[in-house]
Amino acid sequence: MSKYLSTKSTTSQATGFDVLPGVANSTIRPLFDDGEAQFCADFLISSEPWITLGLTFDMAMQRLTDPTREVYVATVSEQIVGVLILYLNGTFKGYIQLIGVHPDWRCRGIGTKLIHWAEEKIFRDSPNVFLCVSSFNLHAQDLYDRLGYRRVGELTDFVVKGHSEFLMRKTRGPLREFKRRT
After folding, report:
1. Which one of 75, 80, 147, 175 has the lowest number of neighbouring Cβ atoms within 10 Å?
2. Dist CA 126 CA 118 (whole Å)
3. What pLDDT does residue 23 have?
4. pTM score of the predicted model
């Protein structure tokens, strides 16, 4: 079975699984190579919110291959169905830079699974998880709200004119009181 999901496949042709956290044959693992990065870049740039944000293939590849970031993919039966980019340094240690789910696999729990996985990883080293969401991306805003994220700031015209990016945070407490888990 191919590790890439054809962008021409329908959901039922892909594997037949309803992907929910804990489903058999699903994993989250590091991105392996440029071929996987290219596959992820292709599905990102061909769907929202990335179209409105003006993400190009080259920009997506730059993000997916940035050595200062940790990049992971969600797979079902070894096929890539989602991608996650984390930035774990700097002021906002524990920043989810990007969550992308293949259009054929949206609304099936993959985004939630990626977020929970990222939170588990980040909360070992930081009491805070941060992410940004576009003002026009109402579905993602609802998801983040359901998962306990709260809006802590607004960056107007940050990526594209006419749209804001909302900085969101999920916290387990103040930074000064945090005890790193091993």
Report:
1. 175
2. 12
3. 53
4. 0.85
